[in-house]
Design goal:
The protein has 460 residues and is an alpha+beta fold. Helices cover 60% and strands 6% of the residues. Among the domains are: 1-91, Serine Threonine Protein Phosphatase 5, Tetratricopeptide repeat (Alpha Horseshoe); 328-454, no CATH class. It comes from Arabidopsis arenosa (Sand rock-cress).
Length: 460
């Protein structure tokens, strides 16, 4: 009870004063600390447990996922599989599996996700709607759309609004707007399943990725008038994003003024992002002012405004005490997830990676590549700007993959920030010159590069 109420001190006191600490009591206190984000202390208690069951392992794995420690979650799941001399083998259940799949999806660890799926099949764990939705989400986030579709279709008559919503959101992330609309129609018309708020986040997101103003307005209206769903801040954010990215800044501002709730970080961030694309400094500065009132340490907001300044040759933005989130990319090679940060030299084969990258860039230059330095945030000479761009984390990741995988092997990269224009151009050219299919999932959407073009149609 104390744990559920978030009163950790009282929960700990009851636990400490208990004469006989049984397994449910241990599980409760471990789960309490894990849910509160005190994952290191939860792990300490977990290691002290005299015995553990599937709930013990699942609580801590879920805690790692909630804290964003996805590698640690997968490591703990692997530890769960190992034989132990002092306790019986613990078989994972549906909740364990769905949590592990979430970690795989966040990391883009497709091979590990496929292994979990094989484990589910091998031990005949029932793929109910919860586990099926988790599989769809994992495959989608790992860049394997076809596998996501196969799981979705295999659910057959079990498909409910959660499964449909997961698949619609998946298609939206890939920019497959027409398929998104078709699936929405199949759900609502053919199968008489009413959409929920998540469904509309996906469908409005699909409109954003294609810049479909009229369709976005129509679905936003449909949400309330046909299905009685009250729009949340996420739905309003989608519409502001749609107006902003389409260059309709005045309409976006009017829409914000008409909102029944106070705009949050998401809303002002969407306006800032849209006005950045147009180079509208005045709107950018206004949106930034409102955004930092709500979140003073939001480094991403300053970076967006800095991008605009850089494009116009202004480098006067000086902000103290704000630490920019470093660009970070993940790739999985032979079941191992490798992490790269901008200018990374921590890899064992760093020297070789940089040498391969230089060979790639030289080949691109011979094919006509010219660096897109417009958004480099530093007041540097052109040559130094090009050098700064060449060490972006996704470029290091692609060099590593080309070095470690056979020709023709697809490359999947997970990026924590929005992919920049120069890296986007480089990925397009590599996909053609090296005959590689490249999938990049950035913080906003999927980019599927093939034969010199991208699925986003250069609109992101």
């Amino acid at each position: 009870m104390y744990s559920s109420c978030g009163d950790l001190s009282s929960a700990q006191r009851v636990f400490d004063e208990s004469d006989s600490k049984d397994l449910p009591a241990w599980n409760s206190v471990v789960n309490a600390y894990a849910k509160a984000g005190l994952i290191d202390y939860a792990r300490k208690l977990f290691d002290e447990m005299p015995e553990r069951n599937v709930i013990s392992w699942s609580c801590l794995i879920n805690g790692y996922v909630m804290c964003g420690k996805y590698k640690e979650a997968l490591d703990l799941f692997r530890e769960m599989q190992l034989p132990k001399s002092n306790e019986a083998f613990v078989s994972p259940n549906e909740f364990t599996m769905s949590t592990v799949l979430s970690a795989c999806g966040r990391l883009g660890a497709l091979e590990q996700g496929k292994w979990v799926h094989a484990y589910i099949d091998k031990y005949r764990v029932e793929i109910d709607i919860v586990l099926g939705t988790a599989l769809i989400d994992m495959y989608a986030k790992c860049g394997s759309l076809e596998r996501a579709k196969r799981v979705f279709n295999a659910l057959g008559s079990k498909k409910d609004v959660k499964a449909y919503s997961a698949m619609i959101c998946c298609l939206a992330m890939y920019g497959l707007t027409d398929e998104c609309f078709q699936l929405f129609s199949e759900m609502t018309t053919s199968n008489n399943i009413n959409p929920n708020s998540v469904t509309f986040v996906g469908i409005l997101g699909a409109c954003v990725h294609r810049g479909l103003i009229n369709e976005g307005k129509s679905y936003f209206k449909m949400m309330t008038e046909e299905f009685g769903i009250i729009p949340s801040i996420q739905h309003y954010g989608c519409m502001v994003d749609l107006y902003g990215r389409s260059g309709l800044i005045k309409e976006a501002e009017s829409f914000i003024a008409s909102m029944p709730m106070e705009p949050d970080v998401l809303i002002w961030g969407s306006l800032l992002s849209g006005s950045r694309m147009l180079g509208d400094i005045k709107t950018c500065e206004g949106a930034l002012k409102r955004l930092i009132e709500l979140d003073p340490m939001n480094s991403g907001a300053y970076v967006l405004l800095s991008n605009v300044y850089a494009k116009t040759g202004r480098f006067s933005l000086q902000v103290k005490g704000i630490k920019k989130v470093p660009g970070c990319s993940y790739v999985e090679v032979e079941g191992v997830v490798h992490e790269f940060v901008v200018g990374d030299e921590s890899q064992q084969e760093s020297e070789r990676i940089y040498a391969i990258l230089e060979e790639i860039m030289q080949r691109l230059r011979e094919a006509g590549y010219v660096s897109d330095t417009k958004e480099v945030l530093l007041d540097l000479e052109e040559k130094d700007k090009e050098m700064a761009l060449s060490y972006h984390s996704e470029k290091l990741a692609i060099a590593f993959c080309l070095m470690k995988t056979r020709p023709g092997t697809p490359v999947r990269i997970i990026k924590n920030l929005r992919i920049c224009g120069d890296c986007h151009l480089v990925m397009k050219m590599i996909s053609k010159l090296f005959s590689r299919e490249i999938v990049v999932r950035d913080c906003n959407r999927f980019h599927h590069f093939s034969d010199g073009s991208c699925s986003c149609r250069d609109f992101w």
